[in-house]
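User: Quick one: structure for sequence A, then sequence B.

Assistant: Sequence A:
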Amino acid sequence: MILHKKVDHSKMRPEDAVLTPTYAARALTTTVPKYKIPEVEMLPRTAYNVVHDELMLDGNSRLNLATFVTTWMEPEARQLMAETFDKNMIDKDEYPQTAELEMRCVNILADLWHAPDAANTVGCSTIGSSEACMLGGMAMKWKWRERMKAKGKPDDRPNLVMGINVQICWDKFCRYWDIEPRQVPMEGDRFCLNAEEAMKLCDENTIGIVGIMGTTFTGEYEPVKEINDALDELNRKTGWEIPIHIDGASGGFIAPFIQTDLEWDFRLKWVKSINASGHKYGLVYPGVGWVVWRDREELPEDLIFYVNYLGGEMPTFAINFSRPGNQIVAQYYNFLRLGRDGYRRIQQSCQDVALYLSGEIAKLGPFELITDGSDIPVFCWKLKKETNFTLFDLAERIRDRGWLVPAYTMPKNREDLTVQRVVVKEGFSRDMADLLLNDIRRALEFYASHPGHKAKKREKGKGTFKHC
């Protein structure tokens, strides 16, 4: 949901309340109201042109290095998506093959993530990783509540342990489901969760620990195996059964292909559920996410609804209901089209570009890398010392060339640190990296030639965000 600034139409000039396309003389005889539905219809091409012209003011998605979301797909994938926009994926009786493709994708992911019995595991598609995280969190809460009831203990004070670097959906989850968030703050050069700090916050009311494979602030993997091993010892000593949920929104589609020996998934005993975003490094246009449980026992039956809907009884455990089936179709297309080798080549190419670009940025002089893209193809940097410009200035200046490269401050305990970040995705080539480098060099030359330029101060409440 996006909250827009309220428009006071009573104070608006008449000319600001209408659209006047340049081709109005040919296709329109009246102006078009902005905030009221028009009284009469217009030609399809005219309506298209009105909307198309306004959207030209948006940024170019291919130059958007802030977003993790896929901005390019093959023509064949686009065609399949266009052909299946009209299929509501929740109508499983009416569109049984779309439902079949969804389950195939779940099985494929379970296999990629080393589920003990991938062919018989359980999972589902979602509108994105935010919904998938909610489902994984709900399962942890319900399983914890079952354990507490079996012990005759109160179940009214659940908590969830995670780093403060989690995506905002986890803050929402805790608020919506009345769970105490126990967040480990950043300290010094540690920007994510580690085992030592996580164990300090655990108790018998802990429903689980969230581990992130690719934190959005820096692109780092959290040390999941280290957390699992420490948790195994803690659970053994206390008799608790605290699980781990892996938020693999980005890394869930990276590590299986280019870091195959890294243990982070169902190979680890206490990893019970994993989510990933198909519309990020799953290489599908938004929005599609996935959540998979280790086995059927980890999804409480209470969370499954059996709906008599449009001719058949249908089990559902997603939060959302109606949505297009075309993202599921596109995800299955990618699995067939690319295979392991295709995904490996694309993800490795993204990482190669990230390592090249981060290395070149480090050579420019005023910047110091915090990460270089060695985990997911995401890296960030800071200024070495105070200069006559800030990273906010730099972000604004290269935006004039179309580049969207965000600058932001870190959260609690490192709010003093401002960084700038690049996300390398398919479609961002080595050549485009060189174009970005040239524009950054031009910006640095400008600031060097204007020593009287005053560094832009961050406005209060701006520049800190949790990324999508």
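Sequence B:
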Amino acid sequence: MQFATHKSTWRKMALLLATVMLTLTLAACGAKNDGNNAAEEEDKTEIATYKGGNVTASEFDKYLGVFTIVQPTYAQIVEIPQFKEQLLTQYISYKAIADLASADAKKQAEEDVKLQMDDYTAAIKEEANSALKEAIAAKNLKDADIENYFRLTAVVVAHMNSLVTEDEMKKELADKPADYMTATVRHILVKTSETDQSTGETKELRTAEEALARANEAKAKLEAGGDWTELAKEYSEDTGSSDKGGQYADQKGAGWVEEFKQAVYKQEVGKIGEPVETEFGYHVILVEKREVPVYDKLTDEEKEAIKGSVAYAHMNQYMTDEIEKLEIDIKLPEPSASPSASPDASEAPASDAPASDAPAATDTPKAE
């Protein structure tokens, strides 16, 4: 469910890894604890210390409670010891970054939190949000817990944004022009394999050689004057575009997998290129329109997107260089469940993906 949101700077910053999706998911689906739950005694057991502070069991439980509501796919693995430690380390890093924030950054964060809470309050009034309300009530999460989560993420974003210079933004655009181009393309995808979204099982559809031969067959028909609408329906296995003549209109390059993105950036406009191989199979691509921005002519929104990428790089740098300096000591209790009863740690996502307004890289096109 989507709803109208304030397009404030931090929303676009591709910065807070998967957890920033809280602002979209909670506000979109809506939820609120009305405060009718019986008060629970806080568990002040110290589960971690770091240079400058500590984390209690109750504090982290509230963080995880919101996190698992927002990211339900993590709910089954959040108690895996290794993954839980990663989340606790991430939480501590956010707290430490928030302590570094300037008064101006904190002021900006408070403005953002107010907008978020306004969105949240409006969304929870919708009758369709009873299921999520119940889930939040079951975790005994209150408005203050939601607001604290918003505040923590907003302060981190504001601080990281404050580190970005205009020279860094200009260099980002110069170094990665394909990420920031806007293009309209048509393509036909011939898959080599297919994954069942319900089971996760992958089956081979054809060999790479067979896929390439079929892609070349489609290309030859297009070059002979074939109709994209008909041939995309016949040949393309990209469900996101096959019924639209294979077209994706006015898309940002950053949303595409690398090989597809580079082909769109380099191919001659108006000419069908040689089939391009990606992890999904072979693509026959026609670039209908391509615009590569010049920094001085960027819109404010485009500059914010670039700032977000640079800010995310600052965040990664912090996680690389500064985490050890925090002298984190994790004291999580040993899990009581037997190893056989717990999911395998390999089920945890390999890394936290940045949030952005663009389609995910594996959506090129549309996760096909």
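Residues 9-169+301-335 form one domain. The radius of gyration is 23 Å.

User: Thanks, that's what I needed.
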